[in-house]
Automatic annotation (TrEMBL):
Keywords: Signal. One of its GO terms (molecular function) is inositol hexakisphosphate 3-phosphatase activity. The lineage of its organism: Bacteria, Pseudomonadati, Bacteroidota, Chitinophagia, Chitinophagales. This is 3-phytase. Residues 1-17 form the signal peptide. The keyword Plastid does not apply. Residues 24-352 form the BPP domain. PROSITE patterns: BP_PHYTASE (PS51662). It comes from the Bacteria. SUPFAM superfamilies: Thermostable phytase (3-phytase). It holds the Pfam family Phytase.
Length: 352
């Protein structure tokens, strides 16, 4: 979730959705499979993770970015009708895995929106200005430098955090890592003085069960939390601000998932309330939890409902709580599907 989106929330159109969320789990589970209103053009190899960029001047011209995970992979760019914008596609990426966007990184005094991709086979972050999709990383930024164990440098998850100070951080995951803390590494992104992004390591944090891997990461900018899916175990929660320490604040979603906990996305209803959506990959469901926790405990995230989507084995998603066009008047939820596409859902279809 991005600060830009939070500041633009129009609460009046989501009140109805919040009220409807009080319907029981049985009501949600018993319904028909929810279908997307739009399925994108197919990519060449293997869709993996989407990110939504909101056009501040014209929300109807917003973009969906999505990775095509292959040794000869790409970062695709789609319009809100699901059509590939060919002149914006970034090609020749070596197994791009996840992507995230953030708004207003200062480069030579100019606020620049960015997309950051994890390039697994080169162990690099690839960074592009949005919406023109021009590289601003000097050829890529190596991360997890110094790690020597197998797959400890194979990049997977990425989420960006914009602090109240305006500083922007990248929180990065890999194929595997230590179990006792330090699975995720957090980097401060800054201008190197030439309009090129540099990254400085600021902390290592995050427990790991050792069951499978950690791929999906999501940051709640407004509340200052980072969540990640420890596959087969649950969803872990930490402070996003490195100055607040590395204490684990919560581990939820421990029950009710068949196998893999995957894609995480955060839908705000107000500045402090909303929903956390987590993919139950093998069942084609998304489990929806309270963003604000429970009464008296902001870290007790209660299951609200489970929705069955027609998206196949999704391990990546994103959501915005803004009216974008006549189709997406109450928000847009995007999820990858294993049929080489991304699926666009109306928010109200998930919470009806």
């Amino acid at each position: 979730m991005r600060n830009f989106a939070t500041t633009l929330i129009i609460v009046c159109f989501i009140v109805n959705a919040a009220c409807k969320s009080t319907k029981g789990l049985a009501d949600a589970n018993a319904g028909d499979i929810i279908k997307p209103v739009i399925i994108t053009d197919t990519v060449q190899y293997d869709t993996d993770d989407p990110a939504i960029w909101i056009n501040p001047a014209n929300p109807a011209a917003s973009l969906i970015l999505g990775t095509d995970k292959d040794q000869d992979g790409a970062l695709y760019v789609f319009d809100l009708q699901g059509k590939i914008i060919q002149d914006k596609v970034v090609r020749n990426l070596q197994r791009p895995n996840n992507v995230d966007v953030e708004y207003g990184l200062s480069l030579q005094g100019r606020a620049t929106d960015i997309a950051v991709v994890t390039e697994r086979f080169t162990h690099k972050l690839r960074i592009y200005s949005v919406p023109d999709m021009k590289p601003i990383d000097g050829g890529g930024i190596e991360v997890f430098v110094g790690e020597t164990q197998p797959e400890y440098r194979d990049l997977m998850g990425i989420s960006l955090y914009k602090a109240p100070t305006g500083k922007i951080y990248a929180i990065v995951g890999r194929k595997t890592g230590p179990r006792n803390g330090g699975y995720l590494w957090q980097y401060l992104l800054e201008d190197d003085g030439r309009g090129i992004v540099k990254a400085t390591l600021v902390r290592k944090f995050g427990l790991f069960s050792g069951k499978k891997e950690i791929e999906s990461i999501a940051v709640d900018d407004a509340l200052g939390y980072v969540y990640y899916s420890d596959e087969g175990y649950g969803v872990r929660k930490y402070y996003a601000d490195p100055a607040k320490g590395n204490e684990e604040l919560a581990a939820f979603g421990r029950k009710g998932f068949r196998q893999d906990h995957e894609g995480i996305s955060i839908y705000p209803v107000t500045d402090s309330t909303g929903y956390i959506l987590v993919s139950d990959q093998q069942t084609n469901h998304f489990q929806i939890f309270t963003r604000e926790g429970s009464s008296g405990n902001p870290h007790q995230h209660v299951l609200v409902r489970s929705v069955h989507l027609s998206t196949l084995e999704s391990d990546g998603s994103d959501v915005v709580a803004l009216p974008l066009n006549s189709t997406f008047t109450k928000g847009l939820f995007v999820a990858m599907s294993t049929d080489k596409t991304f699926h666009y859902y109306r928010w109200e279809d998930l919470m009806k």
